[in-house]
Centromere protein I
Amino acid sequence: MSENSIEIAPISPKEKISLAIDALHASLTSAISKSTASDHLSMITIHVYDYGLSREDLSKAIDILTQPSSLRTSQALQLIKLLYPREKVDDDVVIRVVGCLGVGQRKADQPVQVNLLRWLVLIQPFLKSQRVVSLVYRILFMHLSFESTRQWIAHLLFLATKRKDIKPWRIQYLLELQNKYRESQHLTGLLLLYKEFCPDIVIDRFSKLRGTLFKYPDPQFLSIIHEVHSRANTVSGEDLGRARDWLIHSKRRKLTIPEVVTRDVSEKSVTVEEMSTLASFVKNIERVSLPAQVGSVLRDDGMVKRILVNRPSQRAWARLNTWIANSLREELDAIQEKSYAGEDLLGELLARSYDLCLYTKELLVSVEDFLCMYLARWDGIRHRSIVFKLLLLMPLMRWEIIEREITSPLIAIFHKDTENWLFRCDYLLFLENLLRSYSVRCAVASSAKGREVDGLSQAEVIKTMSSLFAHWENIFKEVSSSDRGAQAIQDTSVYMYDVVEMYVNN
């Protein structure tokens, strides 16, 4: 090498990323060919997984994506997949993404909007300020009517919602949207979050929510960000750990049965907390206010139950059934996903619901619907005692319904595990108790000169009782056919053979 030659330093990977971003940024003012853009995207792809994008490069990339450019939509989508920030993300990045939403010549294409919103969900824990999403909350909320972007807007709102964001007009707007788009999981999920802050919201009907709703959409993205930040030392290990925990739990609130607390009481009203005796309840029954969360009746020692039964309110019962239905479904989904140990709470919810049903002498609609859904996926082990107790409160129904909703899923468990003698014997005992319960109802109706039992005609009742007895008899024979089964049911009452005949002859 001669003395006059100049040694050119090699270009670092970070500089190569910056040069490629600058070249793509030129698409804002001049046309670049598809092949040229692809070459620059390939250069970014080679290095971005190791080094990420600097604050300046990320800002330019957002310019390219949120402003009209000569970049093709497919290439813009490819660029979004490469947005791995090396540092905390500035507030103006979020604001510019939100500003490109909607319809118009200066707005980004719909696929680009959808993927940018998804990216905002991904980088939530890496924002320089979490407050920025609250600043654009109103704008995001008004874009819920757009079906293409609704999923990710609802997700962002779910993550950002605080008590101060719950406004009457927003509740009304959400209810209207949910009524219009009844199958939208994300609108319903957002409404249920609002309901946690405002228990008076009544959601009449909604589709079953997926347990994966509002969960972090791309764990691999998190791993790559973790590697990029660790290599660049731009985020502390504590921040990374906190971000990982935050994303894994994805703001899932662990359910608790609410305490009995009364709010917004007028001077003439009396709170539940103020009444300690039956005499005070009788005296103030017309003035007493229900607790803020009617679900607290499950934790109540009896006073709230008395109000619901002795001063019936269709709205209050609707609120209670909605709360119980949502809570049972949420706990069941959590157990099946193994996202946390929620099994004990599911058992507690079922046990407390049973106590309430015993008090009212009627199975709650929410519990009945849950049982019909739960039996189809039940293993016959978890909460077996309380499940059978609740099933005994089922109203007398036509045999076709009992067979479809109750006995079919239970008999499937019965035949699946032939060595599970505890379930087999408990199922046999359940059938006996159900026949006894139904026979008592029939006897009461007969003594009252009634021709119907739980809305069934006498002919339908006879068919149900006869079919249920025949089913019990088959199970009894199958269980008693083995020495172990015969020993286990040796104390089974033989008077069951007289139960159906006694009612039919009457």
The chain is about 60% helix and 0% strand.
